[in-house]
Specification:
The chain has 16 helices and ten strands. By secondary structure, it is α/β, with parallel strands linked by helices. It has two domains: 201 residues, 3-Layer(aba) Sandwich (Rossmann fold), CATH 3.40.50; 189 residues, Glucose-6-phosphate isomerase like protein, domain 1 (Rossmann fold, 3-Layer(aba) Sandwich). Bound molecules: 5-phosphoarabinonic acid (PA5). The site of 5-phosphoarabinonic acid has 14 residues, from loops.
């Protein structure tokens, strides 16, 4: 792994987070977070950065051992969950799956078993009958295991998906065998999923009580699916550990301070941009992390994510000339896992070029054009998409998000607003139950 993240601030202030006006406030926030005394700050200990954590090593070893068993048991592993119980794992699976297919040594590996990793599919992140019917059809004749992830155990989407997939499993294998093919990740003690797992004897992992969904990627929630996919979770965790270093914390503070300053200066939207399709779900996780953590009490930056260069052909016009209510954060992978050289028959300007070099020219061209339109741009360079850098990015963005939320005066760890639609949905379901419409 090459060295950490590099951040450049273009058209927005680079705060002096050691002696500037926000320095004291940021130090207070850092102390609050790293003390891990306040509710839902347990994720800070997952980086194991400050040596205060009671050793989570035993749990991590068990994750690896059980994952190895799963890899022998099935050729399709369906991960059921939504929001924080879904996006981190999906982000990792997409990144390392793409690296694997591009032939990079940073991809998901065979875990030493010599057996190809099961295909990882996802369910319960929507309530679409079409999606789930098609998923069932695609796995009918394959060897299947399920991993249901829900901290509360009561979320509607994973609940429905789990009930459907569990029935399918029981029908396919019989109850006793189905039980051996179900893995549950949930609250250590509370909730209906924990109770069912105990009753049915499913193998379980814990989502620690003091860690909320979107901050749980480095717990079993993200690590177990990653391990089944063949990702070396120790490498992920060692990267996360590096993100708790002094330099990395300073970088997170600078990023948070710039986001707050841009918000105070009238920017309502942060457009997160990347040039690697494999980062699509990482950007989705970022949207969730920032959106749910900051958007409350009438404040918060609205996080949007664009995948370039595709979205330059849909949103590029707005960015260049539309209403400037946004700033841009570019997530740039310096050495992507794969590359190709274009044939000589290509357009003369492109012939014989590395595709990554052309992609880089696109990024630099976009930055130059948008800067000419006076759009503030924060550029974050990640050296490569190694497991270490994945862990490092996860912890860096979690920390940056918590810093910004506290600077904005909101609690980064709750999501009271999400309950409103659930209440309405339940009311409508109750009203329409009799006619099943
Ligand atoms: O970040 C969060 O807390 C949420 O996005 C949750 O992860 C999401 O709502 C799923 O909740 P649960 O794990 O309880 O099913």
């Amino acid at each position: 792994m090459k060295d950490g993240l590099k951040i450049q601030f273009n058209g927005c202030p680079e705060a002096d987070v050691e002696n500037g006006p926000l320095a004291e406030h940021l130090t207070r926030i850092e102390k609050r977070l790293f003390a891990r005394k306040e509710p839902f700050t347990g994720w800070v200990g997952l980086s194991a950065g400050r040596g205060e954590t009671p050793s989570p090593d035993a749990e991590r070893k068990r994750i690896t051992v059980v994952a190895e068993r799963v890899r022998k048991q099935c050729d399709v592993f369906v991960v059921i969950g939504i929001g924080g119980s879904y996006l981190g794992a999906r982000a990792a699976v997409e990144i390392f799956g793409a690296a694997d297919e591009a032939g990079s040594e940073n991809g998901a590996q065979d875990g030493g078993s010599g057996r190809k990793a099961p295909e990882i599919l996802f369910a319960g992140q929507n309530i679409s009958g079409t999606y789930h019917a098609s998923l069932l059809n695609s796995i009918r004749n394959r060897e299947v295991c399920l991993c249901v992830i829900s901290k509360s155990g009561t979320t509607a989407e994973p609940n429905i998906a789990f009930s459907v997939l569990k029935s399918f499993l029981i029908e396919k294998y019989g109850l006793a065998e189905a039980r051996k093919r179900i893995y549950a990740i949930t609250d250590p003690t509370g909730g209906s999923l924990r109770a069912e797992a105990a009753e049915q004897g499913y193998e379980t992992f814990e989502i620690p009580a003091d860690i909320g969904g979107r901050y749980s990627v480095l717990s079993a929630v993200g690590l177990f699916p990653m391990a089944v996919a063949g990702v070396d979770i120790n490498r992920v965790l060692s990267g996360a550990e590096r993100a708790a270093s002094e330099d990395s914390i300073k970088a997170a503070k600078k990023y948070a301070a710039a986001r707050k300053a841009l918000f105070d200066g009238g920017k309502a939207i942060e457009v997160i941009e990347h040039y690697e399709p494999a980062l699509f779900y990482f950007a989705e996780w970022l949207k969730q992390l920032f959106g749910e953590s900051e958007g409350k009490d009438g404040t918060g930056l609205f996080p949007a994510a664009l995948s370039f260069s595709a979205d330059l052909h849909s949103m590029g016009q707005f960015l260049q000339e539309g209403r400037q209510i946004f700033f841009e954060t570019v997530l740039n992978v310096v050495s992507p896992p794969g590359d190709l050289t274009t044939p000589q028959s290509a357009d003369p300007l492109l012939a014989g070029r590395s595709m990554n070099a052309v992609n880089r020219a696109a990024m630099e061209g976009v930055i130059a054009a948008h800067r000419a339109a006076d759009i503030p741009i924060i550029r974050i360079d990640v050296p490569d998409l190694s497991p270490e850098n994945f862990g490092l990015m996860v912890f860096f963005f979690e920390l940056s998000c918590a810093f910004t939320a506290y600077l904005m005066g909101v609690n980064p760890f709750d999501q009271p607003g999400v309950e409103q639609y659930k209440k309405e949905m339940k009311r409508i379901l109750a009203e329409t139950r009799a006619e099943n419409r």
